[in-house]
Amino acid sequence: MKAIRVLQLCFLWLLVSAILLKSADCHSWKKKLPKPCKNLVLYFHDIIYNGKNAENATSALVAAPEGANLTIMTGNNHFGNLAVFDDPITLDNNLHSPPVGRAQGFYFYDMKNTFSAWLGFTFVLNSTDHKGTITFNGADPILTKYRDISVVGGTGDFLMARGIATISTDSYEGDVYFRLRVNITLYKCY
Amino acid sequence: MKAIRVLQLCFLWLLVSAILLKSADCHSWKKKLPKPCKNLVLYFHDIIYNGKNAENATSALVAAPEGANLTIMTGNNHFGNLAVFDDPITLDNNLHSPPVGRAQGFYFYDMKNTFSAWLGFTFVLNSTDHKGTITFNGADPILTKYRDISVVGGTGDFLMARGIATISTDSYEGDVYFRLRVNITLYKCY
Amino acid sequence: MKAIRVLQLCFLWLLVSAILLKSADCHSWKKKLPKPCKNLVLYFHDIIYNGKNAENATSALVAAPEGANLTIMTGNNHFGNLAVFDDPITLDNNLHSPPVGRAQGFYFYDMKNTFSAWLGFTFVLNSTDHKGTITFNGADPILTKYRDISVVGGTGDFLMARGIATISTDSYEGDVYFRLRVNITLYKCY
Q1: SS3 (DSSP) at B10
Q2: What is the mean pLDDT of chain B?
Q3: Which of A181, B76, B80, C185 could form a disulfide linkage to B65, CB 3.0–4.6 angstroms apart?
Q4: Beta bridge partners of A38
Q5: Residue B77: φ, ψ to 5°
């Protein structure tokens, strides 16, 4: 009689195991969102070259539509202006705080009827806390308070990172300076 | 005797479990392709600024090689022409259908001996069906009927999307208008 | 008595299974790095247009900061120069070896005080060994011997590839030619 109970127990376990295995399946149709494995809040500071600030500028226009020059942002909400940048990253919103890395990449304004940009850039981090890079791509509807862009890759501490960054404009001064707050949430870490 | 049979049964189960576990392993050398979790077919429409169509244009050349201007595509299969765009996305092939979002990004022609481009752009979708972004990167050998580019990220409904988009040129009119059909297949959804 | 031993054995197995299942969980906080599933070492060759080498050039400057032209690299470590390219890929370091594909994309120099670039490009491979594309994004601190950039996507044989590429400058000749060795390590293959 005891043997039969054991037999029943084993079959029960068979059932439970099968269900558990299914939930662990990597290839299921739709997956539950994993818990974030890393969260970083960083700021970066962009000082756009305007013909007079060569020493301080961290970015410069390098392309613009027909008829525009490269020291004055175009009308039409800067449509077509493309800048490359090498901006300091700080832990707080102070431009003069010790940088923990550089934000390097490009952005361009791509809407005629409102301020909107597209970003492709890499955070190159080199501090005691973080060594490695995170690369981002995505549309940036500047006038929206919080907008999400995609983490598309990473190296070093952020090898093959996956996730998003929530960007907000922390401050700006005309067409010369802006500061972005970047709240990075990674869902895959190695 | 029964007890021994139960013992055998348990060992058999041990074996089966081990095999199942191995197949569920996320870290195996080569994984079976998961089933697609989302499929979208969308069209986007690009009207290139040529100096005369400022009102209708949705894209503009902002860079070109030495000697070229930005209202006429270069010879050499447009080699070196870089455009930024903000194009309407529609569910069918009609430019005047109600847009379900915007395709925002850039492309450039990068071959001297044939028409070929490289694309970096984001679908910003904002309809009752889909809210979120999908970002794409990749080479676009324009004269090939169907060509695949990579989905490199996503936000909102497409958080951390992975997959490919199969692009085909649905129509074009000289150097002023083209319409791309984009068949997006996502293999990872959350 | 035997039946009780079997019972004990089953419970032991229950415990072991639970632990194994947990380690196979795809949604764990931090995952062990999977073993590489593909490794490729390839070279690509970039010949920059300088106004005199139209026939051989495989890349051209298409954007530069105010005041610069597009046949001479800017001072300031080429800050702001943006090039588009269609470069041959070879299996060894010989420019004249039969190409196995094309490296297509763009790079720009983005630091004023040292040589550093940002790359966005695709390896379009079409050989007996490999058919498909791999797309890369990332910062390239040129003067560092080995630097990692991100694999952000892939198609064909490299569908949804994930991993990194370790780049090293294999050779260069002034501002006209450079050759990069690219050691690609993929951790996800389908």
Answers
A1: helix
A2: 90
A3: B80
A4: A186
A5: 55, 40
End-to-end CA distance of chain C: 50
Q: Which CA distances in Å does A157 have to A132, A133, A175, C26, C92?
A: 5, 8, 35, 20, 31
Q: How far is B89 from chain C (nearest CA, A)?
A: 23
Is residue A22 a contact partner of residue C42, using CB atoms and an 8 Å limit? no
User: Which pLDDT score is estimated for C24?
Assistant: 47
d(CA C12, CA C18): 10
Contact call for B108 and C84, based on CB within 8 A: yes
Q: Which residues pair with A105 in a beta bridge?
A: A85, A121
Predicted ipTM? 0.86
Contact between chains at A152 and B153 (C-beta distance less than 8 A) = yes
Give Cα B124 to chain centroid, integer Å: 12
Give the SS3 label for residue B3. Answer: helix
Beta bridge partners of B156: B132
Burial B85-112 (b: 16+ CB within 10 A, else e): bbbbbbeeeebeeebbbbbbbbbbbbbb
- Say if CB A152 and CB C137 are below 8 A apart: yes
Contact C181, C168 (CB under 8 A): yes
Please judge whether C24 and B29 are an interchain contact, meaning their C-beta atoms are less than 8 angstroms apart: no
Rg (C-alpha) for chain C, rounded Å, is: 24
Higher model confidence: residue B101 or residue C25?
Answer: B101
The alpha carbon of residue C39 is apart from the nearest alpha carbon of chain B, in Å, by: 12
Residue B155 CA to residue B158 CA, distance in Å, equals 5
For B164, the closest of C10, C121, C155 (CB atoms) is C155
Q: What is the maximal distance between C-alpha atoms in chain C?
A: 93
Identity at C18, one-letter amino acid code: A
Count CB atoms within 10 A of the CB of residue C24.
21
Contact B110 C84 (CB under 8 A): yes
* Inter-chain Cβ pairs, chain A and chain B, closer than 8 A: 140
pLDDT per position as a tens digit, B9-51:
656 676 666 555 544 444 445 678 899 999 999 999 999 999 9
Residues of B in contact with C3 (CB under 8 A): 3, 6
CB contact under 8 A, C153 and B138: yes
DSSP state of C143: T
* C102-C105-C109-C110 Cα dihedral, nearest 10 degrees: -140
Distance of residue A187 Cα from the nearest chain C Cα, in angstroms: 8
The answer to whether B23 touches B32, Cβ cutoff 8 Å, is no
* All domains in chain B, ordered by first residue: 34-188 (2.40.480.10)
Q: Which long-range contacts (CB under 8 A, 24 or more apart) does B101-104 make?
A: B101/B42, B101/B125, B101/B126, B101/B127, B101/B130, B103/B44, B104/A110, B104/A111, B104/A116, B104/A118, B104/A139
Measured in angstroms, the CA of A190 and the nearest CA of chain C are apart by: 5
For residue C108, give the nearest of B108, B60, B157, A57 by alpha carbon.
Answer: B108
